[in-house]
Design a protein that fits this description.
homodimer, 11 strands, 6-stranded mixed sheet, about 350 residues, alpha+beta
Chain lengths: ~350, ~350
């Protein structure tokens, strides 16, 4: 199967929104009047962003999901994407499920595959995604103001926890991942039942980009980022770009991990101070969750709530923005904690 | 050197045209009124698209050049690009010249680096480029009409010839390249002096995207493509998408190789019928030249000439479009030749 056959068979679809789709030297897009185009690109490498024996359907899903998550963080609506793919061989048994996972998520978001490139080489997936957002309404990392409140969507830590368990189970580290804080790999692992691991693994391998929440937050959130590298790192980008600091309520943060499946377990674990720190490390440092962290003025509490309801996405308030640079972790009484995480060090070194 | 330091040090530049450049979840572009956005993506893999010991400055240049060439083929003006980069290690001694080669060409075309991704992995460069073209004026592969004439810019064959010599000199085939017709690797090699090889190698490693010609051909050319896979293959895309055929004047095509440095040599070689075929194979099948092949109505001969002059780009008329599908090679007397090339077979199997 040659390059052109491969493209025709697996990746050529109707593109009603694009002026011109796959098959020419370029694709053509026409922005609607008053809209800006949001653009993001992500490259996924075998052995670093995914295990080489990962379900290709999940990989197709995730490759697009991580890009849609960047659009969500900007409040942009997905429009189209390009796919560049290096493959060791043109294997239909791999390409069929990969393209199905990819295109099912694309269809869900009305995001058209408009072009790409395929070549022989070590497995590498590079997607560039295009979204649209009304002029001046994009959510930026740079808009956080002192006294704004800090929110996180969904739950955090499951993906990193699943990865840590999978890595341990394989008894080899696959070289770690450039985007994951080392803390994930080296942390004491929370115990997980087989069922819980299966659920956590779904978060790792089938992330849900928070596109509906992102667009609902236009005009409400003051700043936003998606959580791909861990909450501390990604909130850190907001703080750095906005020139501010933040205080986080660790009790609220702890509940982000427990809220869904692990609540009962977590309640028991939290009695131990050492385990509290371990849980917190997973919540604050675990990557790959693809939730949104965002800030909004106190006056927008109702707006944030309405956006959460409209997008059917849970949202938790976990802290506030300070004029003082740096990131402070507080207990429920507002007292500063002296927890010291590797990802926190990394962040602290930057602001 | 971490990912963020690397981006800051080598790849963060001012982006006066973009609404938002490197450093947020997405970049933001605003199309000028009445403009469409042309988008293309190319992935370059070590050992397949370039030798692993290639000059990193040349590689940076070529990685963007092949993308700008796609914009040129659509008649689009470069605006911006994203860069996704997998690197075995964050090596400043490699990254500095790579980024210099890349950004020098970007500056030459006013094409802004607006975002990207870096990760550890086998060397892989994926660029997605954005250009703008007035609504409805993009040059497409699908517009060729019977009786239109076929043109090629610049010269053809040097890049493929240099590659074939380099491959032979290395006495190993590096696995061939997915994008190159096998004919290049297996053809009888034309003899090249060391000086001529150095010149031909410049064409292989430092291709010149024909951006000025592409934009000058708006409203004049009926169809266009860039020549990355060889003339026969890329003209074949035009024929297939336009539902037409073509006849090529092989004498005019032969002169495409000889016009610059090899003219004297070529004149001597052409006395031999076997060598004529070898030269023709290089001209028709050699990839990596990044010239444009385009068609235009006879009534636009003066327009084509004016575009060539305005863009300071030589252009040669080498044939015409026929209603009859397929590609015919003719001698100077208009008689059909029975040359049989591998890349021609590949093409013939497609239309």
């Amino acid at each position: 199967m040659g390059e052109f056959d491969l493209i025709k068979r697996f990746f050529t679809r109707p593109t009603p929104r694009a002026v011109l789709g796959v098959g020419d030297d370029c694709a053509l897009l026409q922005a609607a009047p008053g809209m800006q185009m949001a653009i993001s690109t992500d490259m996924l490498v075998s052995g670093r962003h995914f295990f080489d024996d990962v379900d290709p359907r999940a990989l197709g899903h995730k490759a697009l999901a991580v890009n849609l998550s960047d659009l969500a963080a900007c409040g942009a609506s997905p429009v189209a994407f390009t796919l560049a793919l290096a493959l060791p061989e043109a294997d239909a048994a791999w390409l069929a499920p990969f393209s199905q996972g990819l295109l099912a998520l694309a269809d869900l978001h009305g995001c058209e595959l408009i072009g790409g490139d395929t070549t022989q080489g070590p497995l590498n997936i590079c997607i560039t995604v295009f979204g649209e957002v009304p002029q001046g309404q994009a959510l930026l990392r740079s808009g956080a103001q002192p006294a704004d409140e800090v929110y996180v969507s969904g739950t955090l830590g499951d993906a990193g926890l699943a990865l840590a368990h999978l890595l341990r189970d394989r008894a080899r580290l696959v070289g770690g991942r450039a985007d994951a804080p080392e803390s994930v790999a080296t942390a004491t692992l929370l115990p997980l039942s087989a069922d819980d691991l299966a659920q956590a693994r779904l978060r790792l391998e089938w992330p849900t980009p928070r596109v509906a929440l992102g667009t609902a937050l236009r005009g409400i959130a003051s700043a936003a980022a998606d959580i791909s590298d861990g909450l501390l790192g990604d909130l850190g980008h907001i703080l750095e770009r906005s020139g501010v600091g933040a205080s986080l309520d660790t009790t609220a943060a702890l509940a982000l991990l427990g809220r869904q499946r692990y609540w009962a377990t977590t309640q028991a674990l939290l009695a131990s101070e050492a385990l509290r720190q371990t849980v917190l490390q997973h919540v604050l440092g675990g990557g790959d969750d693809y939730e949104l962290v965002f800030t909004a003025p106190i006056s927008q509490r109702a707006g944030v709530q309405a956006a959460a309801v409209a997008s059917n996405t849970p949202v938790t308030r976990i802290g506030q923005i300070d004029a003082l640079p740096g990131l402070r972790l507080l207990n429920a009484q507002g007292e500063r904690l002296d927890y010291h995480f590797q990802s926190f060090d990394h962040f602290a070194a930057k602001v």
